Structure formats: C-alpha cells, structure tokens
UniProtKB/TrEMBL annotation:
Domain Ig-like: start-end pairs: 3-86
Species this protein is from: Hemiprocne comata
InterPro entries registered for this protein in UniProt: Ig-like_dom (IPR007110), Ig-like_dom_sf (IPR036179), Ig-like_fold (IPR013783), Ig_I-set (IPR013098), Obscurin/Obscurin-like_Reg (IPR052385)
GO cellular component entries: cytoplasm
Primary site of residence: cytoplasm
Localization terms from the record: Cytoplasm
Keywords from the UniProt entry: Cytoplasm, Disulfide bond, Phosphoprotein
Name of the molecule in the record: OBSCN protein
Database matches in Pfam families: I-set (PF07679)
The organism's place on the tree of life at top rank: Eukaryota
Amino acid sequence: KEPAATIVEMLKDITLYEGEDAVFECRLSRETTQDAQWFLGDVPLQSNEMNEIRVQGTRHTLVLRKVTLEDCSPISFKVGQHTSTA
C-alpha cells in the first residue's frame, strides 16, 4: 500500500475581474494514484469546456475559464485525508 500523499504547497487566495481565468495550484509531497478532487463550494469539478484540470507530476492545477460572480465561492482540493481551500 502506497504511503499517503500530503499537500506541501497549499492553494492561494486570488482576486480577479469577471471574464478572467482563475488558476489554482497545489503541490503534493509525492506523485500518487490516490483520487485527487477539486471542488467549487460543495460541487465536485470535472474537466470540461469551463474547467481545466491538469496533473504534472506532483503539481495539480485547476483553471476556471472566464469566471463570473457566481463562481465566487471557496475552491477546495482534496487528496486522501488532506484538504486545501482558497
């Protein structure tokens, strides 16, 4: 069983204007096969035309395209028992 990954670089709060892209990054202690999940408020996010979810090694990136005021809620990244919120 692989050791659990921990979040070593937490999410940072950002301020944007409507229509801009929001970019959130988290870095884990190690590459992992554990399920990592992004949330907007309580809603799990999937990669689609409005959200881009990328994983490069230990770096997990979420891009919210052309944000609106309705997108103004906490963004969370969860892996195992660990969570980071911005």
